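Show me a record, fold above all:
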Amino acid sequence: MSPGNVSLRLDAPPEVVGIGVGRHGLRERVEQWLLPELHSIHLYDYQAEVVVAGVAYPIRPGALSIIPAGAPMEFRYRGPSEHVYAHLRLPRRGRAVSAPVMQDLGDEAASVRARLTAIIVAPAARKSAELWSLLWRAATGPAGPDPGAGPDHPAVAAAVAYIEENLARRITVERVAGAAHVSASHLNRLFRAGFGIGVAGYVRQRRADQVEHLLRDTTQSIGSVAASIGIGDLQTFNKFCRARLGASPRQLRH
C-alpha cells in the first residue's frame, strides 16, 4: 500500500466474508479496527474522518473507501453515522491494479448504495460478482474498463456468477454461455480479452484458487474440499493439486 492508494488483485472474484449496514458513533466517537486478512469497503453517507495506516482521509457523503488487509483503521465520528460495508478476501495471485483508498462516487453513489444494500441477503456468487465489479470500477474510474474485458461486461458478470455457483458441478463452456445469453465463442473472446484465458481455463483457475484457500485457511476436511470442486475421489484430487498447485493436499494444508 502506497499513501493514497491500495493494491488489488482482481483476476478472480473476491470471497465475500461479510456485508451489511454499520451504525457507529452512537456512544463512542472514536473506533479502532484491524482486519488482518480482509480488505474492507465502506460507502459513506456522513461526514467524518478515517485514519488508515497513519494517513488521515476526510469522509464525505458519497465517498467510497477501500482499506487493505492488515491496515489499522481509526474512525473519528461526529455523531451517529451509517455506512454500507463489505469485508473481502482477495486472491493471493495474479496481476495487481491500483485504486484510491478514498474516492468520491459522485452521482453514482446512490445507485451503488442501492445495489450493495440489495445484495446483503443475495446468494454468495451474486455478492462476489457485484463487489468484483465495484472494485474494478474503483480501480479504473467511472468509465470502467473496456466493455469487452473484465466483470463489468454483463455477459461476463453473468458467466462468473454461474461459475461460482457451480464449481462443485460439471461445467461446460456451452452451459456457461447459455447462462450468459451469448454464444460460447463470443464468451471465450470476452474472457480472453478480460482475463487472458478462456472460460475453461478460468474455471480451472477458480477451482484451484478455492482449493488452495480451503486447504490453507480452513479446517475443512480434504474430502470435503475435493467435493467442493466436484472431485469425488482423493486420488484424482491429489493429481489435481499436484498439477495445478504444485503440491499434494496434505502439503498444502501444512
User: Anything to note?
Assistant: Residues 23 and 63 are 16 Å apart (CA to CA). Residues 145-254 form a domain with the Arc Repressor Mutant, subunit A fold (CATH 1.10.10.60). The mean pLDDT is 88.
